[in-house]
Amino acid sequence: MINVLLVDDQSIVREGLTSLLETQSDLKIVGEAENGKIAVERSLELKPDVILMDIRMPIMDGVAAIRILNKQAPEIKILVLTTFDDDEYVTQAMASGAKGYLLKDTPSAELAQAIRAVNQGYTQLGPGLFEKALAVNAEISATIPSELSELTSREQEVLQLIAQGYNNREIAAELYIAERTVKNHVNSILRRLNLRDRTQAAILANKYF
Question: What's this model's pTM, rounded to 2 decimal places?
């Protein structure tokens, strides 16, 4: 039996997922959460095998919750299920520790199979998302890794936190510096590494750190 925790800010979505997934004899819904903060609390309490995690939610979003759970309960597999297919969301979620990323129009049978696959340790990406990730990687493939060594020690710290999905405010709190200082560091990193945005920075950091 695979124990599943549902995380979505819309109750109607959680109800629909429960109805769909509980028709599968090997899947059991053990709990629900309406935002990332509650998801972390319920996950540490219930210890589900797999979490179905939305991305955009109030109080704490899915990426932040994934990052926390990846540190505090790395044994729990997290499968993102959302309506957003932006490459930045895909990259941040996977970099933070998600094992899969699917869209909400995924057929129920495929969703159930994806849960089983993620539970067994496989990575699952919805149609077109693998290509998005490849495209972003291709854009930074010409970057010279040695340029990373030219960053200051503080810039390298900021870059590693970007790779973990931290936003500027969270980086500032983590490093005990002003948010404006973080913004300056990020701009310097992007300029020196010839990167377009923090998504590319996260991919590069995860590749070489």
Answer: 0.67
